């Protein structure tokens, strides 16, 4: 696939990387770029061998510095609503993708960039990462899910503080708040992301897929229904060859050879 605003590559078998590639605009998301992310996800979904998706931004300054303000400035209200709704669907797709998505936040993750990171399953930040929802500075609200995901991640009071003041949060604080998992020196970020991706890619693919689904779907259910869903998934996984292989390998003291069956 050829993209104008993305680099989409397979780094190793099963491990894919999307790099949002508009460094001249600090990787700001315009509608064309979001459409390309959607198309890249089509490619991931068609690839049965895909195991982990990494997402980062080009250059050393920004992950994504938000929705593209120049593009939004010219939008009508209906175009703004469509851009918001379409991007929300694409970000929701990331949460529902059958493989884990790891954000490598290599600089500014503001507005739509913070919303993109929050839609990924795991967030690894470089020491230069800066998170924030500065939309109020522009006279608008978040439009890519930030007003809903931020309170779910960090709690209502902190979310409101960040949303109402637009305060920027550096990497260490982002970890404390639960916005990022770990912080690494910029030069190590990709390798650390790859290490985590390799660990995940070596596990039973069906187990990984359903663990992600359990956590993502379970969050929106009450505890009884969420635990019932877990039992169903647990039972379902007993039907897989990978369960038989994983348990046999443990008993036989050897490494499991999972086949995604
Ligand atoms: N959109 C378009 N261009 C941008 C953006 C952006 N979000 N951010 C930076 N750029 C451009 C700059 O205009 C500049 O371009 P040029 O060189 O042509 O002048 C270039 O990138 C470099 O930026 P700066 O010179 O500003 O770099 P600094 O190091 O001085 O500052 C900052 C970096 C702090 C990141 C600064 O660029 C900034 O504040 N950017 C805007 C951040 C922001 O407000 N993001 C939120 C946008 S709103 C949003 O995301 C809402 C999502 C919901 C949308 C709903 C759909 C309708």
SSE blueprint:
Layout: E1 6-12, E2 15-20, H1 31-46, E3 52-57, E4 62-64, H2 69-73, H3 77-96, E5 101-105, E6 108-110, H4 112-118, E7 122-126, E8 130-132, H5 146-154, H6 156-165, E9 169-170, H7 171-177, E10 182-184, H8 189-201, H9 205-218, H10 223-237, H11 241-251
Parallel strand pairs: 2-3, 3-5, 4-6, 5-7, 6-8, 7-10
Antiparallel strand pairs: 1-2, 8-9
The protein binds octanoyl-coenzyme A.
Describe the 3D structure.
The chain is of the alpha/beta class. It has 2 domains: 6-201, 2-enoyl-CoA Hydratase, Chain A, domain 1 (Alpha-Beta Complex), CATH 3.90.226.10; 205-252, Lyase 2-enoyl-coa Hydratase, Chain  A, domain 2. The protein has 11 helices and 10 strands. Strand 2, helix 1 and strand 3 form a beta-alpha-beta unit. The longest helix is centred in the first third of the chain and has 20 residues, at 77-96. Octanoyl-coenzyme A (CO8) is lined by residues 25-26, 28, 65-70, 72, 80, 83-84, 108, 110-112, 134-135, 137-138, 142-144.
What is the highest CATH level, the class of the largest domain? Answer: Alpha Beta
Structural class: alpha/beta
Uncertain residue ranges: none
H/I helix tally: 11
Residues in β-strands, percent: 15-25%
The largest sheet, given as strand count, sense and whether it forms a barrel, is:
6 strands, mixed
The total domain count is 2
CATH superfamily of the largest domain: 2-enoyl-CoA Hydratase, Chain A, domain 1
- Order of strands across the widest beta sheet? 1-2-3-5-7-10
Rg computed from alpha carbons, rounded to a whole number of angstroms: 19 Å
């Amino acid at each position: 696939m050829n993209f104008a605003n993305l680099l989409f590559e397979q780094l190793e078998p099963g491990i894919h990387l999307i790099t949002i590639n508009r460094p001249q605009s600090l990787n700001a998301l315009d509608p064309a770029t979001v459409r390309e992310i959607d198309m890249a996800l089509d490619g991931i979904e068609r690839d049965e061998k895909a195991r982990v998706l990494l997402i980062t931004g080009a250059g050393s300054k920004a992950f994504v510095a938000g929705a593209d303000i120049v593009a939004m400035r010219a939008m009508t209200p209906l175009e703004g609503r469509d851009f918001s709704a379409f991007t929300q669907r694409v970000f929701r797709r990331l949460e529902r993708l059958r493989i884990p998505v790891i954000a490598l936040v290599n600089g500014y993750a503001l507005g739509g960039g913070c919303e993109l990171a929050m839609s990924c399953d795991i967030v690894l930040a470089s020491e230069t990462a800066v998170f924030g929802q500065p939309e109020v500075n522009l006279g608008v609200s978040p439009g890519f899910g930030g007003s809903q995901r931020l309170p779910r991640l960090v709690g209502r009071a902190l979310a409101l503080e960040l949303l109402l003041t637009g305060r920027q949060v550096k990497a260490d604080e982002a970890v404390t708040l639960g916005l990022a998992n770990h912080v690494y020196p910029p030069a190590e970020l990709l390798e650390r992301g790859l290490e985590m991706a390799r660990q995940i890619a070596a596990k039973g693919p069906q187990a990984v897929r359903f663990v992600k689904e359990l956590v993502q779907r379970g969050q929106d259910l009450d505890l009884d229904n969420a635990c019932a869903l877990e039992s169903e998934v647990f039972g379902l996984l007993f039907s897989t060859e990978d369960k038989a292989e994983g348990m046999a390998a443990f008993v036989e003291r050897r490494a499991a050879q999972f086949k995604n069956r």
